[in-house]
Amino acid sequence: MYLGRVVGRVWSTVKNECLEGHRLLIVQPVTPELKDTGKRIVCTDWTGAGAGELIYWVRAREASFAFSPAEVVTDATIVAIVDELHIKRPPLADARGSEPTSEPRPSGSGRSGSGA
Amino acid sequence: MILARVVGTVVATRKDPRLEGKKLLVLKPVSPDGKDESGYVVAVDTVSAGYRETVLAVSGSSARMAEGCKDRPVDTSIVGIVDNVSLDEKK
Fold it and tell me: What is the value of pTM for the model shown?
């Protein structure tokens, strides 16, 4: 499963009948520090996520299991909306012996959609 | 799923019998803002897409779940024709 942010939508009228009735959203994968990483992809949506929301998504065949028992032809699905992230990292063993780096901890940027 | 543009067709006479009657198209992956990405991919068409149309392509074993591709040796299938893509403006 991967973190991502909803950055757009795709409209498609003519589609495979296995995909009918499903929302298609464009997701930008992000790192736990909420920086963009990798290519944007199109995901089906299981959650009702909206623009700018922080979500996580699954890839490959498992993506269609979210809609089980329906067989939805998808290789990427949004399966959850992220409320908060808590990331605990071991202090970096800094060669110079300075203080461990403390990164600002991202939290709760999901619903606000501020794109922080 | 990825967005891609149809750039050509593939004709194959000798092929797995389970692929008979399937239209094979050459796709060029594109980013949501319409820029070409690297590489090409051959996909089985399930929606009668045409030349230069932007389509949605599913890859991997999910591609076999598409109606018309069940139990066939397919790893990329075209499952939708894209009408429009909307992107939130960059903040």
Answer: 0.77
Sign of torsion, CA A13 A14 A20 A22? Answer: negative
**CA A75 remoteness from chain centre:** 14
**Position of tokens 């794109």?**
A115
In this structure, which CATH number among 2.40.50.220, 3.40.109.10, 2.30.29.30, 3.40.50.1370 belongs to the domain B2-81? 2.40.50.220
- Full set of structural domains in chain A with CATH: 2-84 (2.40.50.220)
Please tell me which residue of chain A has the smallest CA distance to B55.
A12
Residues of B in contact with A13 (CB under 8 A): 81, 83
B46 to chain A: which residues are within 8 Å by CB?
Answer: 16
Question: Tell me: the pLDDT tens digits for B14-43?
Answer: 999 988 989 999 999 999 988 999 999 999
